[in-house]
Amino acid sequence: MIDFLLLAGLLAGPAGAAERSRDLGIIIGRYPPGLHDAITDVKGVRVGHVTLSEGDGPLAPGKGPVRTGVTAIIPADGDLWESKVAAGSFVLNGNGEAAGLMWLEESGILETPILLTNTLSVPEAQQGVIEWMLRSHPRMGIGDDSLVAMVLECDDGSLNDLRGRHVRPEHAIQALEKAWSGPVEEGGAGAGTGMMAYEFKGGIGTASRVTPKEAGGYTVGALVNANQGERHTFRVLGKPVGLEITDLKPALRQDGSIVVVLATDAPLDSRQLSRLSKRAMLGVARTGLVGHHGSGDLALAFSTANRIPHHPKERMIDLKVLSDFHLDDLFEAAGDAAEEAVINALLAAETTKGRDGNTAHALPHDRLKKLLRARR
User: Do 306 and 85 form a contact (C-beta atoms < 8 A)?
Assistant: First the structure.
Protein backbone atom coordinates (compact mmCIF):
# COMPACT_ATOMS: atom_id res chain seq x y z
CA MET A 1 0.00 0.00 0.00
CA ILE A 2 1.13 3.54 -0.65
CA ASP A 3 2.64 5.47 2.26
CA PHE A 4 0.13 8.00 3.64
CA LEU A 5 2.86 10.65 3.98
CA LEU A 6 3.79 10.06 0.35
CA LEU A 7 0.18 10.32 -0.77
CA ALA A 8 -0.39 13.55 1.17
CA GLY A 9 2.61 15.15 -0.47
CA LEU A 10 1.73 13.98 -3.95
CA LEU A 11 -1.73 15.48 -3.70
CA ALA A 12 -0.55 18.82 -2.33
CA GLY A 13 -0.53 21.51 -4.98
CA PRO A 14 1.02 21.92 -8.42
CA ALA A 15 4.68 21.35 -9.20
CA GLY A 16 7.02 24.28 -9.06
CA ALA A 17 10.68 25.15 -9.11
CA ALA A 18 10.73 25.63 -5.33
CA GLU A 19 9.59 22.06 -4.62
CA ARG A 20 11.94 19.77 -2.74
CA SER A 21 11.68 16.09 -1.92
CA ARG A 22 9.46 16.55 1.12
CA ASP A 23 7.13 18.88 -0.76
CA LEU A 24 6.38 15.94 -3.05
CA GLY A 25 5.95 13.54 -0.15
CA ILE A 26 9.27 11.84 -0.83
CA ILE A 27 10.12 10.95 2.76
CA ILE A 28 13.39 9.08 3.03
CA GLY A 29 14.14 7.30 6.27
CA ARG A 30 12.70 7.75 9.72
CA TYR A 31 14.67 10.70 11.10
CA PRO A 32 13.49 14.32 10.75
CA PRO A 33 15.49 17.00 8.95
CA GLY A 34 16.98 20.05 10.62
CA LEU A 35 15.62 23.58 10.28
CA HIS A 36 16.69 24.10 6.66
CA ASP A 37 17.00 20.42 5.67
CA ALA A 38 20.51 21.37 4.62
CA ILE A 39 24.17 20.91 5.49
CA THR A 40 24.00 24.33 7.16
CA ASP A 41 21.83 22.80 9.90
CA VAL A 42 25.15 21.75 11.45
CA LYS A 43 26.09 24.80 13.51
CA GLY A 44 28.97 26.79 12.03
CA VAL A 45 28.74 25.37 8.51
CA ARG A 46 28.32 27.98 5.76
CA VAL A 47 27.83 27.65 2.00
CA GLY A 48 28.34 30.20 -0.79
CA HIS A 49 27.98 30.07 -4.58
CA VAL A 50 29.24 32.01 -7.55
CA THR A 51 27.37 31.10 -10.74
CA LEU A 52 28.81 31.83 -14.19
CA SER A 53 26.35 31.60 -17.08
CA GLU A 54 26.68 33.54 -20.31
CA GLY A 55 26.59 33.07 -24.06
CA ASP A 56 24.76 30.66 -26.34
CA GLY A 57 25.34 28.75 -29.54
CA PRO A 58 28.31 26.80 -30.91
CA LEU A 59 31.26 26.06 -28.67
CA ALA A 60 34.16 28.48 -29.12
CA PRO A 61 36.88 27.14 -26.79
CA GLY A 62 38.10 29.90 -24.53
CA LYS A 63 35.07 32.11 -25.21
CA GLY A 64 31.97 30.10 -24.30
CA PRO A 65 29.18 29.37 -23.85
CA VAL A 66 29.83 29.41 -20.10
CA ARG A 67 27.84 27.20 -17.74
CA THR A 68 29.97 26.73 -14.65
CA GLY A 69 30.77 28.14 -11.22
CA VAL A 70 32.20 27.53 -7.78
CA THR A 71 30.69 26.51 -4.46
CA ALA A 72 32.43 27.11 -1.14
CA ILE A 73 31.79 25.23 2.09
CA ILE A 74 33.23 26.71 5.27
CA PRO A 75 33.19 23.87 7.81
CA ALA A 76 33.14 25.73 11.12
CA ASP A 77 33.12 29.05 12.90
CA GLY A 78 36.35 30.72 13.92
CA ASP A 79 39.85 30.26 12.54
CA LEU A 80 39.94 26.89 10.83
CA TRP A 81 43.71 27.04 10.41
CA GLU A 82 44.42 27.57 14.09
CA SER A 83 41.56 25.34 15.26
CA LYS A 84 41.05 22.44 12.84
CA VAL A 85 38.28 19.84 12.57
CA ALA A 86 38.52 16.07 12.22
CA ALA A 87 37.79 14.72 8.75
CA GLY A 88 37.69 11.51 6.75
CA SER A 89 36.82 10.38 3.24
CA PHE A 90 35.87 7.50 0.97
CA VAL A 91 36.57 7.14 -2.74
CA LEU A 92 34.13 4.80 -4.49
CA ASN A 93 35.71 5.39 -7.92
CA GLY A 94 38.71 7.59 -8.44
CA ASN A 95 38.38 9.05 -11.94
CA GLY A 96 38.74 12.67 -10.84
CA GLU A 97 40.80 15.24 -9.01
CA ALA A 98 40.58 15.85 -5.27
CA ALA A 99 43.18 18.45 -4.39
CA GLY A 100 44.14 18.24 -0.73
CA LEU A 101 42.70 14.77 -0.18
CA MET A 102 46.10 13.11 0.35
CA TRP A 103 46.84 15.36 3.34
CA LEU A 104 43.34 14.92 4.74
CA GLU A 105 43.73 11.13 4.62
CA GLU A 106 47.20 11.31 6.16
CA SER A 107 46.44 13.79 8.93
CA GLY A 108 42.76 13.17 9.60
CA ILE A 109 42.08 16.90 9.73
CA LEU A 110 40.48 19.63 7.66
CA GLU A 111 42.11 23.04 7.93
CA THR A 112 40.79 24.93 4.90
CA PRO A 113 37.36 25.50 3.37
CA ILE A 114 36.15 23.01 0.77
CA LEU A 115 35.64 24.32 -2.76
CA LEU A 116 33.71 22.60 -5.54
CA THR A 117 34.15 23.49 -9.21
CA ASN A 118 34.72 21.97 -12.65
CA THR A 119 37.57 19.64 -13.57
CA LEU A 120 39.88 22.09 -15.34
CA SER A 121 39.31 24.94 -12.89
CA VAL A 122 40.76 23.20 -9.83
CA PRO A 123 44.03 25.22 -9.95
CA GLU A 124 42.17 28.55 -10.13
CA ALA A 125 39.89 27.58 -7.23
CA GLN A 126 42.93 26.49 -5.24
CA GLN A 127 44.61 29.81 -5.92
CA GLY A 128 41.53 31.63 -4.70
CA VAL A 129 41.25 29.79 -1.40
CA ILE A 130 45.00 30.13 -0.85
CA GLU A 131 44.80 33.90 -1.35
CA TRP A 132 41.79 34.05 0.97
CA MET A 133 43.65 32.14 3.70
CA LEU A 134 46.89 34.10 3.29
CA ARG A 135 45.08 37.37 3.98
CA SER A 136 44.41 36.40 7.59
CA HIS A 137 47.62 34.43 8.21
CA PRO A 138 50.64 36.60 7.37
CA ARG A 139 53.13 34.04 8.74
CA MET A 140 51.80 31.17 6.64
CA GLY A 141 54.59 29.82 4.44
CA ILE A 142 57.20 31.94 6.24
CA GLY A 143 57.45 31.04 9.92
CA ASP A 144 54.25 28.98 9.88
CA ASP A 145 53.33 25.88 7.91
CA SER A 146 52.08 26.03 4.33
CA LEU A 147 48.50 25.06 3.62
CA VAL A 148 47.07 22.47 1.23
CA ALA A 149 43.76 23.75 -0.16
CA MET A 150 40.84 21.35 -0.54
CA VAL A 151 39.17 21.54 -3.97
CA LEU A 152 36.88 18.85 -5.42
CA GLU A 153 35.60 18.69 -9.01
CA CYS A 154 33.07 17.31 -11.46
CA ASP A 155 33.20 17.55 -15.27
CA ASP A 156 30.66 20.01 -16.72
CA GLY A 157 32.00 19.83 -20.28
CA SER A 158 28.70 18.61 -21.74
CA LEU A 159 27.20 22.08 -21.23
CA ASN A 160 30.17 24.32 -20.51
CA ASP A 161 33.23 25.59 -22.35
CA LEU A 162 35.46 23.50 -20.11
CA ARG A 163 38.69 24.41 -21.90
CA GLY A 164 37.97 28.08 -21.32
CA ARG A 165 38.58 27.71 -17.54
CA HIS A 166 36.23 30.59 -16.85
CA VAL A 167 36.39 30.15 -13.06
CA ARG A 168 38.98 32.58 -11.79
CA PRO A 169 40.57 32.88 -8.31
CA GLU A 170 38.40 35.91 -7.57
CA HIS A 171 35.27 33.79 -8.09
CA ALA A 172 36.46 31.36 -5.43
CA ILE A 173 37.10 34.28 -3.06
CA GLN A 174 33.63 35.69 -3.77
CA ALA A 175 32.01 32.33 -3.00
CA LEU A 176 33.87 32.18 0.30
CA GLU A 177 32.85 35.71 1.23
CA LYS A 178 29.20 35.04 0.31
CA ALA A 179 29.02 31.87 2.39
CA TRP A 180 26.27 31.89 5.00
CA SER A 181 24.50 29.56 7.40
CA GLY A 182 20.94 29.77 6.01
CA PRO A 183 19.11 27.84 3.28
CA VAL A 184 21.31 26.61 0.45
CA GLU A 185 20.50 27.39 -3.19
CA GLU A 186 20.22 24.11 -5.09
CA GLY A 187 20.24 22.84 -8.65
CA GLY A 188 22.13 24.90 -11.22
CA ALA A 189 23.92 27.09 -8.70
CA GLY A 190 27.65 27.56 -8.22
CA ALA A 191 29.59 24.41 -9.08
CA GLY A 192 26.30 22.77 -10.10
CA THR A 193 25.63 25.18 -12.98
CA GLY A 194 26.74 22.84 -15.77
CA MET A 195 26.08 19.47 -14.15
CA MET A 196 23.74 16.63 -15.18
CA ALA A 197 22.51 13.68 -13.16
CA TYR A 198 20.84 10.61 -14.67
CA GLU A 199 20.71 12.57 -17.94
CA PHE A 200 18.52 15.26 -16.36
CA LYS A 201 19.81 18.64 -15.21
CA GLY A 202 21.59 18.07 -11.91
CA GLY A 203 23.86 20.10 -9.66
CA ILE A 204 23.85 21.11 -6.00
CA GLY A 205 21.54 19.38 -3.55
CA THR A 206 21.46 19.25 0.23
CA ALA A 207 19.57 17.66 3.11
CA SER A 208 19.99 16.90 6.80
CA ARG A 209 18.86 14.47 9.48
CA VAL A 210 18.67 14.75 13.27
CA THR A 211 19.07 11.59 15.33
CA PRO A 212 16.80 10.97 18.36
CA LYS A 213 17.71 12.44 21.74
CA GLU A 214 18.43 8.99 23.11
CA ALA A 215 20.95 8.56 20.28
CA GLY A 216 22.61 11.89 21.04
CA GLY A 217 20.38 14.26 19.06
CA TYR A 218 23.17 14.79 16.56
CA THR A 219 22.76 16.46 13.17
CA VAL A 220 24.17 15.04 9.94
CA GLY A 221 24.06 17.28 6.88
CA ALA A 222 24.90 16.38 3.29
CA LEU A 223 25.68 18.51 0.25
CA VAL A 224 26.18 16.94 -3.17
CA ASN A 225 27.28 18.08 -6.58
CA ALA A 226 25.27 15.58 -8.59
CA ASN A 227 26.70 14.88 -12.05
CA GLN A 228 26.39 11.11 -12.18
CA GLY A 229 24.55 8.24 -13.75
CA GLU A 230 22.58 7.07 -16.76
CA ARG A 231 18.83 7.43 -17.04
CA HIS A 232 17.92 3.75 -16.87
CA THR A 233 19.40 3.34 -13.36
CA PHE A 234 17.60 6.33 -11.78
CA ARG A 235 15.34 5.46 -8.86
CA VAL A 236 13.21 7.41 -6.39
CA LEU A 237 11.93 5.59 -3.30
CA GLY A 238 12.92 2.36 -5.05
CA LYS A 239 10.76 3.12 -8.08
CA PRO A 240 12.74 2.78 -11.37
CA VAL A 241 11.51 6.12 -12.71
CA GLY A 242 14.41 6.30 -15.14
CA LEU A 243 12.97 3.33 -17.02
CA GLU A 244 9.65 5.18 -17.33
CA ILE A 245 10.88 8.64 -18.37
CA THR A 246 12.92 7.74 -21.43
CA ASP A 247 12.68 11.03 -23.34
CA LEU A 248 14.09 14.46 -22.41
CA LYS A 249 17.67 13.30 -22.86
CA PRO A 250 20.62 15.51 -23.81
CA ALA A 251 22.28 15.04 -27.18
CA LEU A 252 25.68 14.90 -25.49
CA ARG A 253 26.37 13.28 -22.13
CA GLN A 254 29.90 12.52 -20.93
CA ASP A 255 30.75 10.26 -18.00
CA GLY A 256 29.93 12.16 -14.84
CA SER A 257 30.79 12.15 -11.16
CA ILE A 258 29.36 12.96 -7.76
CA VAL A 259 30.94 14.71 -4.82
CA VAL A 260 29.30 14.29 -1.40
CA VAL A 261 30.28 16.46 1.57
CA LEU A 262 28.99 15.45 4.99
CA ALA A 263 29.02 17.59 8.13
CA THR A 264 28.09 16.49 11.64
CA ASP A 265 28.22 17.80 15.19
CA ALA A 266 28.70 14.28 16.53
CA PRO A 267 32.13 13.79 18.15
CA LEU A 268 33.77 11.48 15.61
CA ASP A 269 37.42 10.92 14.77
CA SER A 270 38.91 10.63 11.29
CA ARG A 271 38.51 6.86 11.07
CA GLN A 272 34.85 7.09 12.02
CA LEU A 273 34.26 9.94 9.57
CA SER A 274 35.71 7.82 6.78
CA ARG A 275 33.23 5.12 7.73
CA LEU A 276 30.43 7.71 7.70
CA SER A 277 31.51 8.72 4.19
CA LYS A 278 31.02 5.15 2.98
CA ARG A 279 27.42 5.17 4.21
CA ALA A 280 26.73 8.35 2.27
CA MET A 281 27.57 6.46 -0.90
CA LEU A 282 25.08 3.77 0.05
CA GLY A 283 22.43 6.49 0.07
CA VAL A 284 23.51 7.79 -3.32
CA ALA A 285 23.45 4.22 -4.65
CA ARG A 286 19.75 4.01 -3.77
CA THR A 287 19.16 6.71 -6.40
CA GLY A 288 20.91 4.57 -9.04
CA LEU A 289 24.65 5.26 -8.76
CA VAL A 290 26.71 2.51 -10.36
CA GLY A 291 30.21 3.96 -10.09
CA HIS A 292 31.17 3.68 -13.74
CA HIS A 293 34.76 3.35 -14.92
CA GLY A 294 34.81 6.99 -16.02
CA SER A 295 33.09 8.34 -12.92
CA GLY A 296 34.73 10.10 -9.99
CA ASP A 297 32.64 9.28 -6.91
CA LEU A 298 33.91 10.73 -3.64
CA ALA A 299 32.51 11.40 -0.18
CA LEU A 300 34.17 13.56 2.47
CA ALA A 301 32.97 14.02 6.04
CA PHE A 302 33.97 16.33 8.88
CA SER A 303 32.92 16.85 12.49
CA THR A 304 32.63 20.20 14.25
CA ALA A 305 32.50 18.66 17.75
CA ASN A 306 36.24 18.72 18.49
CA ARG A 307 38.61 21.51 17.53
CA ILE A 308 42.22 20.52 17.09
CA PRO A 309 44.84 23.23 17.78
CA HIS A 310 47.41 23.99 15.11
CA HIS A 311 50.16 24.64 17.67
CA PRO A 312 49.10 22.92 20.91
CA LYS A 313 50.83 24.12 24.06
CA GLU A 314 50.43 20.77 25.76
CA ARG A 315 51.83 17.44 24.65
CA MET A 316 48.45 15.73 25.10
CA ILE A 317 45.14 16.79 23.54
CA ASP A 318 41.83 15.78 25.08
CA LEU A 319 39.22 14.80 22.52
CA LYS A 320 35.81 13.25 23.16
CA VAL A 321 34.96 10.53 20.67
CA LEU A 322 31.72 8.58 20.32
CA SER A 323 31.96 4.83 20.81
CA ASP A 324 31.84 2.76 17.63
CA PHE A 325 28.92 0.87 19.16
CA HIS A 326 26.81 4.04 18.90
CA LEU A 327 27.47 4.90 15.26
CA ASP A 328 24.56 3.15 13.60
CA ASP A 329 22.09 6.03 13.93
CA LEU A 330 24.63 8.34 12.30
CA PHE A 331 25.30 5.84 9.52
CA GLU A 332 21.58 5.68 8.81
CA ALA A 333 21.25 9.46 8.88
CA ALA A 334 24.18 9.94 6.50
CA GLY A 335 22.75 7.56 3.90
CA ASP A 336 19.29 9.09 4.09
CA ALA A 337 20.57 12.69 3.88
CA ALA A 338 22.79 11.91 0.90
CA GLU A 339 19.95 10.15 -0.92
CA GLU A 340 17.57 13.06 -0.38
CA ALA A 341 20.26 15.58 -1.36
CA VAL A 342 20.56 13.94 -4.79
CA ILE A 343 16.81 14.10 -5.35
CA ASN A 344 16.69 17.70 -4.12
CA ALA A 345 19.38 18.59 -6.66
CA LEU A 346 17.28 17.14 -9.48
CA LEU A 347 14.04 18.75 -8.30
CA ALA A 348 15.64 22.19 -8.00
CA ALA A 349 17.47 22.14 -11.31
CA GLU A 350 15.90 23.96 -14.26
CA THR A 351 16.22 23.09 -17.93
CA THR A 352 19.53 24.47 -19.19
CA LYS A 353 20.79 24.89 -22.73
CA GLY A 354 24.55 24.85 -22.98
CA ARG A 355 27.25 24.74 -25.61
CA ASP A 356 26.26 23.69 -29.14
CA GLY A 357 22.63 23.87 -28.05
CA ASN A 358 23.00 20.78 -25.89
CA THR A 359 20.08 20.78 -23.46
CA ALA A 360 19.84 19.26 -19.99
CA HIS A 361 16.14 18.97 -19.20
CA ALA A 362 14.72 19.39 -15.74
CA LEU A 363 13.22 16.35 -14.07
CA PRO A 364 9.47 16.74 -14.78
CA HIS A 365 7.77 17.02 -11.39
CA ASP A 366 4.31 16.16 -12.67
CA ARG A 367 5.45 12.93 -14.31
CA LEU A 368 7.46 11.97 -11.25
CA LYS A 369 4.36 12.44 -9.09
CA LYS A 370 2.30 10.17 -11.33
CA LEU A 371 4.95 7.46 -11.24
CA LEU A 372 5.18 7.62 -7.46
CA ARG A 373 1.38 7.48 -7.10
CA ALA A 374 1.51 4.12 -8.86
CA ARG A 375 4.02 2.81 -6.33
CA ARG A 376 2.86 -0.30 -4.44
Answer: yes
Inside any domain, residue 10: no
Query: What CA–CA distance (Å, rounded) separates 244 from 375?
Result: 13
pTM over 0.85: yes
The CATH number that applies at residue 89 is 3.60.70.12
Across-strand partners of 204?
A: 187, 225
Residue 5 forms part of a structural domain: no
For residue 357, is it left (φ>0), alpha (ψ between -120 and 50) or beta?
A: left
Q: What is the pLDDT of residue 328?
A: 98
Determine the residue type at 186. E
Say if 19 falls within a structural domain: no
Asked whether 108 and 114 are in contact (CB, 8 A), the reply is: no
Q: What is residue 376's predicted lDDT score, i.e. its pLDDT?
A: 54
When divided into structural domains, the chain yields a total of: 1
The domain in which residue 239 lies consists of 29-363
Sign of the Cα torsion 74, 75, 77, 78 reads negative
Closest CA to 347 of 18, 13, 31: 18
Question: Over the stretch 197-214, which tens digit does the pLDDT of each residue have?
Answer: 999 999 999 999 999 999
Residue partners of 337: CB distance under 8 A and separation at least 6: 207, 208, 209, 220, 221, 222, 262, 280, 283
Give the list of residues 6+ apart from residue 241 with CB closer than 8 angstroms, or none: 234, 235, 368, 371, 372
Q: Which residues are catalytically annotated?
A: 257, 295, 297
13 three-class SS: coil
What is the separation of C-alpha 46 from the centre of its chain, rounded to a whole number of angstroms?
13
Sign of the alpha-carbon dihedral angle for 269, 271, 273, 276: negative
How far from 134 is each of 131, 140, 156, 368, CA to CA, in Å? 5, 7, 29, 47
CB 204 within 8 Å of CB 344 = no
